[in-house]
Design goal:
This protein is an alpha/beta fold. Helices cover about 35% and strands about 20% of the residues. It has one domain: LigB-like (Protocatechuate 4,5-dioxygenase, Chain B), CATH 3.40.830.10. Strands 1, 2, 3, 4, 5, 6, 7, 8, 9, 10, 11 and 12 form a twelve-stranded mixed beta sheet that branches. It is globular and about 45 Å long.
Length: about 290
């Protein structure tokens, strides 16, 4: 299946050259590229969140495979929806899904379902691709949309991703064997280096000062590599962070994969573009290493 762009000409420029120039305007030159296990990156229209997204992607080495986890804004599809085959198209070209690795993730959890419906109109993963395509010509993705954001589900999605990565790495493994070992035997040499992308905006439609105050609590939990703490603080302080589920899942996987530290690359809000600081959306870019 070829997944066509859903928000080209709306969230970002639709013409290839115009989009390339738009992305280029957000790239930070001269940065030291770091090897990250996971990142948190926003997904609003590029005129609003592109500065944060560009700063993040400018700061990392981009591997050959990326797991993209985003919130399901449309309500379509399963609770946890993975596309395990086909490709995604943007104005900058076509990106293949890593079918072997996607099947490996799918085999690790009964909560994750093969489902393309959740992806057809959703923007949270699509807007990541032009940035990745700007820096890397050939790469594959595994797209996952999360409608079910119960804590136990978020943790299981993270564990499934980490287990699939561990299965694909050479050498001895101490972790439990996957549910259906035969389904993923081909994946053992497929993926050695993966970036897990948690797509999320922060507080929605708060005054800028209040948004920053709330968002700082969530960011603090992320920087402490505390997925359960992030889940609690989002709920306790009513932080309207739309991708907290994907971020909890990413942090869970990153910790299992040996993450030791995190770094806030940039924080901003939509008021810096619109001039309206009474009802802003916050954007945070974070590396997990």
């Amino acid at each position: 299946m070829l997944r066509s762009p859903a928000v080209a000409g709306y969230f970002y420029k639709a013409a290839p050259e115009a989009l390339k120039k738009q992305v280029e305007s957000f790239i930070v030159r001269g940065t030291i590229k770091k090897k990250a296990i996971g990142i948190v990156v926003p997904h609003a229209g590029l005129i609003y969140s592109g500065g944060v997204a560009g700063a993040v992607y400018s700061s990392i080495e981009i591997p050959d495979t990326l797991v993209l986890i985003g919130p399901n804004h449309t309500g379509l599809g399963a609770g946890i929806s993975i596309m395990s085959g086909g490709s995604w198209e943007t104005p900058l070209g076509t990106v293949e899904i890593d079918e072997v690795f996607a099947s490996s993730i799918l085999s690790q959890s009964r909560r994750i379902h093969e489902d393309s419906a959740a992806h057809l109109r959703e923007h949270s993963l699509e807007v990541q691709l032009p940035f990745i395509q700007y820096f890397k010509k050939k790469f594959k993705i595994v797209p996952i949309q999360m409608l079910d954001t119960r804590l136990e589900t978020c943790l299981e999605v993270g564990r499934a991703i980490a287990e699939a990565i561990n299965v694909s790495r050479p050498g001895p493994r101490k972790r439990e064997q996957p549910r259906e070992q035969s389904e993923i035997s081909e994946a053992k040499t497929a993926v050695h280096n993966v970036l897990i992308v948690a797509s999320s905006d922060m507080s929605h439609y708060e005054r800028a000062e209040k948004a920053k105050e709330k968002d700082s609590r969530a960011i603090h939990s992320i920087l402490n590599l505390d997925p359960e703490g992030l889940y609690r603080v989002v709920r306790d302080y009513e932080i309207t962070m739309c991708g907290y589920g994907p971020t909890v899942a990413m942090l869970t996987a990153a910790k299992m994969l040996g993450a030791k530290c995190a770094e806030l690359i940039k924080y901003s809000n939509s008021g810096e573009t619109s001039g309206d600081y009474e009802k802003v959306v916050g954007y945070a870019g974070i590396l997990i290493m």
